[in-house]
Every structure is written in structure tokens, then in C-alpha cells.
Amino acid sequence: MRGLFLFLKFSLVGAAAIGIRDSPDQCPGYNAINIIEHDNSLTADLVLAGDACDLYGSDLLNLKLLVEYQTDNRLHVIIHDADEEVYQVPESVLPRPGSKTPGSHRDNPTIRFDYQPQPFSFRVLRGDQVLFDTANTNIVFENQFLHLRTWLPDNPNIYGLGEHSDSLRLPTTSYTRTLWSRDAYGIPSNTNLYGNHPIYVDHRGHAGTHGVFFLNSNGMDIKIDKLYDGRQFLEYNTLGGVIDLYFLAGPTPKDVSMQYAEIVGLPAMQSYWAFGFHQCRYGYRDVFEVAEVVYNYSRAHIPLETMWTDIDYMGSRRVFTLDPLRFPLEKMTELVNYLHKHNQHYIVMVDPAISDIDNEAYNRGRVRNVFLSRDENDIYEGAVWPGVTVYPDWFNPETQPWWNNEFERFFNKSYGVDIDGLWIDMNEASNFCAWPCKDPFDYAQNNNLPPIPPPVRPAPRPLPGFPNDFQPQSSQHGKRSSSLRPRDTKGQKIGLPGRDLIAPQYQIANAAGSLSNKTIDTDIVHFGKGYTEYDTHNLYGTMMSSASREAMLQRRPQTRPLVITRSTFAGAGAHVGHWLGDNRSQWDQYRISISQMLQFASIFQIPMVGSDICGFGGNTTEELCARWTTLGAFNPFYRNHNEIQNIPQEFYRWPTVAEAARKILDIRYRLLDYLYTSFHRQSETGEPFLQPLFYIYPSDKNTFANEAQFFYGDALLISPVQDVGETFVNAYFPSDIFYDWYTGQMIRGEGKTITLRNIGITQIPIHIRGGFVLPLRSKGAATTSELRRRGFEIVVAPDRDGYARGKLYLDDGESIHPANSSMVEFEYGDGQLRIRGEFGYHEAVLVESVTLLGQRKRKGVMGVRHGNSSDHDVSFDADRQVLKKQVHIELTAPTVINF
Ligand SMILES: *[C@@H]1O[C@H](CO)[C@@H](O)[C@H](O)[C@H]1NC(C)=O
Ligand SMILES: *[C@@H]1O[C@H](CO)[C@@H](O)[C@H](O)[C@H]1NC(C)=O
Ligand SMILES: *[C@@H]1O[C@H](CO)[C@@H](O)[C@H](O)[C@H]1NC(C)=O
Ligand SMILES: *[C@@H]1O[C@H](CO)[C@@H](O)[C@H](O)[C@H]1NC(C)=O
Ligand SMILES: *[C@@H]1O[C@H](CO)[C@@H](O)[C@H](O)[C@H]1NC(C)=O
Ligand SMILES: *[C@@H]1O[C@H](CO)[C@@H](O)[C@H](O)[C@H]1NC(C)=O
Ligand SMILES: *[C@@H]1O[C@H](CO)[C@@H](O)[C@H](O)[C@H]1NC(C)=O
């Protein structure tokens, strides 16, 4: 196995020649010595190969290299300081997978490591193909700056490196991706946004796909560019941490996604109801208005699954309090009870920042010492919605029990706001007070935080079916609701001492300016081991996410918590979902929402994702809102959300939008078990269900840059209209068979663009890919619990050879560990639909019909071996080439249906 670690003599071309002052090229790099090869690993010492260049700090003299073949498809390369003082992402935040099966991965690795010792550089290869190559570049490892460059092929197809609102396939020249969590209003392109996912997918068509995950939470600029001589590169420039790289062998895009999930964790399974439609807005004036929205949805016959409330419900915008006049406790309790009685759900927002004005949550937290502080008597203060605020320190072991307790009290099941899910926001963390935030109190006084609407008005109109409290004649009495450390750092991996934690010499391109601007000061030291905010800023949202999931689990230990967060780090999907942030009601944001959704769902393993339907900031228009309503129905997380000063945009506000919503919700709900089954698969295996076209057609070059269409599960191609005033879309059809969802008409894709026309604003083109069996609920329903009582219509869309397959996963829809479940497998071929699999979950739901697409002729023979059927149960539509057969089959045992 010696051959795996080849000593290659790279030709040393002009590394120095490119050198300009202040460039890493003038740094000496490292020499590898004491190289030891083990069974599945290699270790070496790296020593600085010349005079320190001290480019943005001071060079570390002694490093260690560890290379591990962790699985056949995963190679781990880590370069860290010999003393292990330098900060590393804590295992408590992101547990590492280690080697999966100890043994001889080196016998059969798909990718391999080779290196040159002096100066040290390395390559990662798959066969003869070089995937990663640091030759002729110098690794720079300083106390406040790391630099690593790899060469890329010409015109590479690189995806990932989020969170961003740029093109799905990233630009290849003069492009910088800055990762530093930021409260970014309007999700502007080419800036750092809320979350951080330093993984990229490098897709090389026929030659295969691989992934590179850089496990580092420090602020960084990842640059993709070309040298003057045309050589293409990608480089990491970070403010600290260690060089910790995972190479994922692919060779398909789906494989890379699954291999990434092995590192960061499989996404959390969601409850069935969570896939229903959600309504939210910032600026609901009071609980009456919230109730009226619920009522208006039902009157418009638009299925509303979950009602949400933004910060409006809070007393003076303080978390864990209610506005006593506008959202009094007894009315909130009644509202939640009403929703639950109608099989609907309720969600509110919680922010991390706690008002320091006398309130119970703050007082209890203060006693337990859970807030970030400079020392015990100097709690760090910022300014957020309620004015002066303090921030929980998620590293403090007291914080979780305090957080749990606040949830249990405030979201009290018997008398309180018994929420079904949770929305967490502002957790980058956001601070309105610019750095240096000298006097947050003064800031809060003089910077006119947005006004809170005037107190309650009487209920304006009757809401039939709601409690008396919600009727105009009822009385309006509201009740008040309850409202540092010096140490030995060696071996601790918590960060080098003596760094400038506020203004490091290397400046990342943070769109907020200096590192600490509009967030928590980066020189704050966390409780316990002593991690600094400088190193862990990018983890704040993800740590709040897992703490909040835990608090929700304490309230309802058996059920899957729905938690939607704004800020995320790699691995967040194992705990929470994500909405794409505060976008605007603009066509460019409608379009880019597709690419953003795909990145999260297929690359970052956070599949519970969606944009704010109709747009958050600015006034929407009827046309944009109608189009976004239809596109949003193919976001796993489907929520309409709007900002306070804008015109209302609930779906019932315009007849066309209401019609679009009714039509598309019917389709979404009929497809809900297909979504649920696909989502379940991803939560078990990491295999993504939402996919860019190149995931499914990796050899088809025309798909590489396509970000206008996507696959919703493996079987459905969605092609939204792209712009204002248009009633057509130029949709790309790869070489494959497709069937129009609405007409059943077959389209033979030829790797060409087809213009689909006459798409009214209430419609969206959907095509079923040949080769799939779709289990549809027989018709739409007002809530998901009603939907679960509907029977199934099985749609068979044969491929070129006349075959099709599909799956249906059934369980109780909410248990973390369902007592019983079914995995039903459908397989069609040779005139037979075979239903097999595991049948553990029995519900009195029947398969009511089977529809066979693409049938030129009516077939002769028919009959069912199990169940019953007869000739007159079959209908044939020659125009649509559809054969439909009525059946009556329980999904409790294997069956064969003959056509
Ligand atoms: C909104 O996002 C789009 C696309 O991400 C971007 O081009 C545009 O600049 C953003 N608009 C604002 C106002 O931030
Ligand atoms: C509900 O519908 C009524 C009647 O169309 C309308 O006047 C009212 O403004 C709506 N209220 C809300 C909150 O949607
Ligand atoms: C929830 O409310 C009930 C009824 O008011 C009360 O008995 C119980 O102590 C509350 N639970 C918590 C955790 O505050
Ligand atoms: C902080 O951000 C504001 C804009 O949000 C900007 O005007 C200011 O210059 C920034 N300050 C620093 C120190 O970066
Ligand atoms: C949105 O519409 C409202 C009502 O017509 C108007 O007052 C407001 O100025 C509009 N906002 C924008 C950003 O155009
Ligand atoms: C689940 O299994 C239990 C016993 O194994 C059975 O009593 C129950 O009816 C099953 N429920 C469903 C919905 O299949
Ligand atoms: C099929 O059999 C069930 C009883 O097993 C019966 O209730 C149903 O009416 C039958 N359907 C047809 C179409 O004959």
C-alpha cells in the first residue's frame, strides 16, 4: 500500500515569480519531516521552511499534518499547530464522524492523497484526475491568518459556499465569498449573509463530481479567480482556526451530498403537518387581526395549516412576554385552542436577545449567569428590538436549562401560548447598535426603533366560529401576562492568546464593515473553556438552534420539533430548517430563491427550506404574488411572510392569487406523501430530493448552469415562468421522457429548450419524468390531518422502456420514533403494477385508482389478484393517452395489478 503516498516531483514553476508584496507567495511555506505512514493514515511534522513572512500576524513554526482515509469515499486532511492551542470548531457543536469502519480503506479508496515534502504541498486524486492541488503555492499558517490555494480546471463548475444569493454555479473570476454571519436585509448578492457553509461541489461532467468541506468557523474570504496566465484557482483566507479539510469522492453529485451528510449529520425529519401552508406577517396589529386572517383563509377556501406571529405579540418586543393589550394571554390561549380544535397549528418568533429591563426571563437568566459578559458584573449589552438587550451564552451549561425553563413557562401547554413549532431569528447575532456600541441605552433612545402600533381596538367584525372574546361585542379587558480568564491554553484548541480580536490585520470583505459591527463584540470570551466570539461568531445561530430544538423537545418529547432559523452553520439541518431571510418583493429575488433553496436542500443538507412567498420587503404585486404562490408550493417549507409597512399579501387578497393558491395547494397536498416520502429518504440516507438539473443529468452540459428549473423529488421537473408580464417559459428538457402534469401529454426531451406557452398567472408548468410511480392523495383537503384520511391515486409514468418505480413511506406523521411505519414499493413493467414492501402502518386508507400515462392503445387484459376490480372500472382517454383504472386496495399486503 506504499504506493498511495507517492513522492511526486512537481515541476516548480514560477511560484515566486507571481509573488507580489503582501501576497502569500512571499511566505516560505513548510517542510514535511518525520513522515510516518500508518495503515489508514499518515502523519508528519511541518516546520516553517524559511524566514517568517508575518503577513497578517505571526507565522507558526511547528505544525502537524494528519491524513486519514476515513471511508472508501472520504479523505480527511488536517493541519494544526503542534501545541493544539489554535481554536478548532468544538465537537460539542459539530461532532466529527471519525473513521466509519476501521480496517483497510487504503485497500480500496476512491480518492488518494499524495504530497511533496519540501516544500510541503499536496494533491488529492481520483484515478488520474487531480481534484485538489496545492503545488507551487505556499500554505500560510499564522496566528490570525490562514491561506491555502488549490488549482482548478478551466471554467470549473463550482457550487455551494453559502449562504449567498449569487448564481447557483459560482462565478470563476474576481469572486469572493465571505463567510461571516450577518443580519443582511434584502439578501443582496455578492455579500455575506446569515449562515456559513464552507463546502463546495466541483462538478466535472463525465469526469465526475467531488466535494470539499473546509471545517472552519472563523471569518473567511474564499476567492475564486484566475491568475494573469489564466490558471484557475480557489483559495481560503481565514482569520484563524486550522486547515481542516474533508474530501468527498463522489463520483456523482448525489453521492457528494450523501457523503457530506455523513460528516455534518442527516437532516431532521419533519412532521407531516409541517409541510402544510404557513401564513405569517410582521405587523399584525393584535390578536383580533390574527384571528381574522385565519377566518378569511377559511372563507376563501384556501387551506391554512399554520398561523404565525412575528415580534408583534411580545410586550414591548421582549421575548417571553406578551403585549398585555394587543395580545393578552387569555385571548392567545383561546386562539391557540381554536386552531388546535380545527387541526391547525401556531408558531411564534423568539429572538436570542433578551431585554435587560426588569422581566422574569432576564432576571432568572441573570441569577444563573447565562448571559455573555466581560466579567460577572459586566454583562455585554447591545440593542435589538426591545432596546437594550443581553445575549445568552450557549457555551454556558446553565443556559440550556434556563432556556428550557423559559419555554416551559411561557409556552405553557395548559395556560399559555402552546406553540406547535418555533421560529428563531436575529441569531447571527444581530445588534442594531453599530460598533463600537458605546452606549446601547443611548442608541435605543435616539435611534427610533420601529414604532409599536397603538393599543388594541375593539374587534372590528364578527368572526363566526371563534370564541366570544373575538366577537365585536365582547369586553376588551386584557390581563397582564407573566411577563475572563487567563489560563493554560495548550492542548485546549480554544484559541491562541494574544490576538487582536477586534481588528485583525487581514480584513475579510464583511459587508457590515468591521468584524464586530452590528453584532456581538468579537473580543467577548464565552463561559467555560474560554472560546472567543472571534472564533465562534459563525456558530451562534446554530448553537441557538440546537438549544431551541432541545427546549421544544422538553415540551413535547415524543414529537418532531419544527424549528425554523435564520442563521445556520454546517450541520444545522440535523436540528432545524431555514427560511431564506428578509428578501424583497422583486422578480430577481423570486428567481434567485430557486438557487438559494437548492443550495440548502441539496448541498448543505438543510432540506426544510423556503423563501418568503410573495416577498418580505417592499410591496408585492398581484402578478408576482400569484407566480410566487405557485413556485413556493415547491419549497419544502411553504410560508407567506411580509413586512410591517407593506400592503397585505395574504393569498385571499386578490382573486387571481386566491385562485392560484387553491389550485397549487390542491396539487401540493396531493403530492404531500411524495414529498414526505422523499424527505424521509433524505433524513435516513442524505440523498437529496430537491435537485438542480445537473444532479440528475450530470453528463449533460446544458444543465450545469440551469438555475431556473429544478426537480422536486426525482420525478417532477418544475419550470416556473421567469419574469413580469410573461406567460411563457423557455424550459430545458434533457434527453428523457416527460409527461405534462396537467394533460398527461408526453414530451420527448431532446436536450433542447422548449418554449411552453399560455401559462396564466395562476399556473406553473410541472412535468413528470418517465420511470416513476407517484402515490398521490386522491384530492386536496383543508388541513393535512384531513389529507391523511384521503385515499391514494397511483400515477404511473413509464420510461422509454415502459418501466416505472416509486415508493410511499407512511407513519403516524409526527413521532420521533414511530411505533410502526410502512415502506411501500411500486414497480411497473410488462403491463403489471406490483406493490410490495413493508406494511407496518395500517390506516383505513385505500388505493382508489391507478392511472397509466403514455398509453397509445387501450390494453386488453386486466384484473387484480388481490382486491377487486372489473372491466367497467377502466377508462381510456385516447387524447391524453391515459388509462385509468378504479381499484379498491388496502395498503396492507403485497398486490399485483394487471393492465
Ligand atoms: C436582492 O437580491 C438580489 C438577488 O440576490 C440582488 O441582486 C439585489 O441587489 C438585492 N436587493 C436588495 C435591495 O438588497
Ligand atoms: C378579512 O376579510 C374582510 C372581508 O373581505 C376584509 O374586509 C378584512 O380586511 C379582512 N381582514 C384581514 C385581516 O384579512
Ligand atoms: C402552566 O400553567 C398551569 C396552569 O396555570 C400551571 O399550573 C403550571 O405550573 C404552569 N407550568 C409552568 C411550567 O409554568
Ligand atoms: C457599521 O455599519 C454601518 C452600516 O450599517 C456603517 O455605516 C458603519 O460604517 C459600520 N462601522 C464599522 C466600524 O464598520
Ligand atoms: C406600499 O404601498 C403603500 C400603500 O399603497 C404605500 O403607502 C407605500 O409607500 C408603498 N411602499 C413602497 C415601498 O412603495
Ligand atoms: C401500530 O401498531 C400497533 C401495534 O403494533 C397497532 O395496535 C396499531 O393499530 C398500529 N397503528 C397503525 C396506524 O398501524
Ligand atoms: C371491493 O370489495 C370491497 C370489500 O372488500 C367492497 O366494499 C367494494 O365495494 C368492492 N369494490 C368494487 C368496485 O367492487
Write the layout of secondary structure elements.
Layout: E1 30-37, E2 41-48, E3 62-71, E4 74-81, E5 112-116, E6 121-126, E7 129-133, E8 140-141, E9 146-152, E10 157-162, E11 175-179, E12 197-203, E13 209-214, E14 220-226, E15 232-238, E16 243-248, H1 253-264, E17 277-279, H2 287-299, E18 306-309, H3 329-341, E19 345-350, E20 354-355, H4 360-368, E21 373-375, E22 378-379, E23 382-384, E24 387-390, H5 399-410, E25 421-424, H6 440-446, H7 533-536, H8 540-555, E26 562-565, E27 577-579, H9 587-603, E28 609-610, E29 612-613, H10 622-632, E30 638-640, H11 655-670, H12 672-685, E31 690-691, H13 693-696, E32 710-712, E33 716-718, E34 729-733, E35 737-740, E36 746-748, E37 752-756, E38 766-769, E39 772-777, H14 784-787, E40 792-797, E41 804-810, E42 822-829, E43 832-839, E44 846-852, E45 863-864, E46 874-877, E47 882-890, E48 895-898
Parallel strand pairs: 17-18, 17-30, 18-19, 19-25, 25-26, 26-27, 27-28, 29-30, 40-44
Antiparallel strand pairs: 1-2, 2-3, 3-4, 4-16, 5-6, 6-7, 8-9, 9-15, 10-12, 11-14, 12-13, 13-16, 14-15, 20-24, 21-22, 23-24, 31-32, 32-33, 33-38, 34-37, 35-36, 35-38, 39-40, 41-42, 42-43, 43-48, 44-47, 45-48, 46-47
The structure holds 2-acetamido-2-deoxy-beta-D-glucopyranose (NAG) (7 copies).
Residues 289, 292-293, 296, 650 line the site of one 2-acetamido-2-deoxy-beta-D-glucopyranose (NAG).
GO biological process, one term: cell wall organization
GO cellular component, one term: extracellular region
Pfam family, one: Glyco_hydro_31_3rd
